[in-house]
Amino acid sequence: VHGPTLEAVEGDRVRVYVTNRLPAPTTVHWHGVFLPNGMDGVGGLTQRAIRPGETFKYEWTFRQHGTFMYHSHHDEMTQMALGLMGMIVVHPRRPTPAYRVDRDFVILLSQWFIAPGAARPDPNRMSDFNLLTMNAKAFPGTTPLVCKLGDRVRIRFGNLSAMDHHPIHLHGHHFRTVATDGGRIPLSAQYPETTLLVPTGATRDIEFVADAPGDWPLHCHMTHHLMNQMGHGIPNLIGADAAAIDRRVRPLLPGYMTMGHTGMGDMGEMGMAVPENSIPMVGARGPFDYVTMGGMFTILKVRADLARVPEDGGWYQHPPGTVAEPATPEELARDGIRT
Ligand SMILES: [Cu+2]
After folding, report:
1. Which of 43, 154, 316, 317 could lock 101 by a disulfide, CB 3.0 to 4.6 Å apart?
2. Cα–Cα distance between 274 and 82 in angstroms, integer?
3. Residues 166, 332: contact at Cβ < 8 Å?
4. How far is residue 50's CA from residue 47's CA, in Å, rounded to a whole number?
5. pLDDT value at residue 269
6. What's the CA-to-centroid distance between 134 and ligand 1, angstroms?
7. Surface-to-core class of residue 193, CB atoms within 10 Å of its CB (0-12 exposed, 13-18 middle, 19+ buried)
8. For the stretch 214-224, what's the b/e string if a residue is b when 16 or more beta carbons lie within 10 angstroms of its beta carbon?
9. pLDDT(270) > 70
10. How many DSSP H helices and E strands does the chain contain?
11. Where do the DSSP E strands lie in 11-165?
């Protein structure tokens, strides 16, 4: 439900046609990209909004490389809550040997409120979001990151959550943050970490060597971002056809008009197309037991031989004697443990 990742090379001149198929005006902002002010996509400030049915043209030359984002910049509260955002990857024109990696992943972090049983996000929510996603998927729907043992790996994070920053934690490895949407971080300023705060409205690139075989969680460390919805029933009118309601209410309240069904930016036409969505269950069956996490969680799968595992990596086959297991009475006695 996010837009596609746009990929380019530093120095490329790009032209993006944006057709507005919403029932409300919109614009697109190219977040972090150096471009002429009039291409910045800020509704009302640097251009007039793109009206429903219109096609606008944005054009610029990439003067930089790195990881950037794009998102609606008109009625952001509604349109970003509905997922109108995406990632931009710009490769250097003359990459240094250090730039080359074996895996280059892109993960856009976002958050939603979708009433249980509903299929569309509620943009009127200001807090208490109940779906936290990586590339618009909550675990177990997230895509695992499959790597070969020894691969040099880059993960590009972007965060366009409405109200939250996400401390992203990687198990079993350490990494360096090598770039932000402001540019490359000098080697002398990089340091090893296992958790990286990705603020909303920012990108962070991390790099590491996948040197530990196994199934390693990569997840937000805020526990409420590791779960999916709880059972609240909140009315949500976004995307609803309110014409029949309006007709019946007007004899009682002359001029009555249902608000909020196309967003709060303006009164649009009825029948707004909204992202398809569904609410996944909390957790999933793992190779040993139930994995009690949802939300902003995926798995780095490091494998010695990719030819011998399924495309999604399957489950890690642990060498004998390397898995936590119940202690035997003999072991407890040997080590003097009283339980
Ligand atoms: Cu989080």
Report:
1. 154
2. 7
3. no
4. 9
5. 37
6. 10
7. middle
8. bbbbbbbeeee
9. no
10. 3, 20
11. 13-19, 28-31, 55-61, 66-72, 85-91, 103-112, 131-134, 145-148, 152-159
CA of 9 to the centre of ligand 1 (A): 31
Q: Which residues contact 313 (CB under 8 A, 6 or more apart)?
A: 144, 146, 215, 299, 301, 303
Residues with CB under 5 A from ligand 1 (ion): 166, 220, 222, 225
> Which amino acid is residue 96, in one-letter code?
T
Across 186-214, average pLDDT: 97
Q: Which CATH superfamily is domain 1-95 in?
A: Cupredoxins -  blue copper proteins (2.60.40.420)
| Residue 99 Cα to ligand 1 middle (Å) | 28
> ipTM score here?
0.85
Domain 98-233+278-339 has CATH 2.60.40.420: yes
State the distance from the centre of ligand 1 to the C-alpha of 73, rounded, in angstroms.
23
The CA dihedral of 15, 18, 19, 22, to the nearest 10 degrees, is 170
Task: Give the pLDDT confidence score for residue 263 in this predicted structure.
Answer: 62
Instruction: Give the integer Cα–Cα distance in Å for 168 and 214.
Output: 19
Measuring CA to CA, which residue among 46, 102, 35, 112 is closest to residue 68? 35
Structure tokens that stand for 65 in this block? 């490389």
Distance 36 CA to ligand 1 centre (A): 33
Most confident range (mean pLDDT) of 75-79, 140-144, 208-212, 243-247 is 208-212
Q: Cβ of 55: how many Cβ atoms within 10 Å?
A: 10
Longest dimension (CA), the chain: 84
Tokens of 223: 């526990």
Outline which parts of the chain fall under CATH 2.60.40.420. 1-95, 98-233+278-339
